[in-house]
Amino acid sequence: MPRRYRLGLPALLITGVYLVALAVAAVIALTSGDLAALRRLTLFTETAKDTTAAWANVLLPVLVGMAWAWALWQSLRGPLAGPPPELDRDARRLRVALYAAAGSWLLYPLLPAWPWWAVVLDAVVMWVVVLLFHPVLGRSLEYADRARAAGVLAYGGIAVIEVLDVLDVSTPGAGLICGLAVLVWTVLVLRAQRRDSRWRPATVVYGIAALVAPVGVALVGLLLAILENHANDLTSAGDALMVIWLARSAHDLADPRHQPSPAPS
Fold it and tell me: So where does this one cross the membrane (predicted)?
């Protein structure tokens, strides 16, 4: 399977190293009760002082870690092997922006906490993705102007809110507006991708899964009281789905299947 992809072997090796580290961290958590390594590898957070090595505190991070391992493989393997298609300037720019957006999530394991500037950086990169998606999707994107406006409002607003929060300026209701704008933009882009043969159906499915994951987390938290304190843990799995969608959206644009068929001799 690795040979099917341009970077399949390096991606498999990196993913394998992560899985080994995940297994070791899980064993340490179960045998010594120390959750620090496990939570750092999977949830990218420090362990609270009152956190015990109960089954949920070990099982959920392991499951989230499996999701991130899959995200590593999906992101790092690159497009399918074969001669890449000739892409126009807009498509090339979009691929770079999508990879940058997916790569920005790599800051998670490198930082002890998610600082305000990282939120702003992520929002700005996604703001660029919004602008570059528009010309590439073309006629496939319904309500194109509204979609672009929603995306610009969403991610530009997130960056502004974060900066104002640092300055202790209150923005009541702004977060909800930005969240709804993200929803509108994402739904319209996913619909356009589904109609565009350049993107594989699986890529769209990952995007839909990333979109509905927060709703699923909220429902799980309501239905199962034992998981109420682990909603943030489950949200991390939704973040992994978003990374997969961004990376696969970039991969698919360079899929060799889009090469024009050779002329008959």
Answer: 12-33, 53-73, 94-111, 117-137, 149-167, 173-192, 204-227
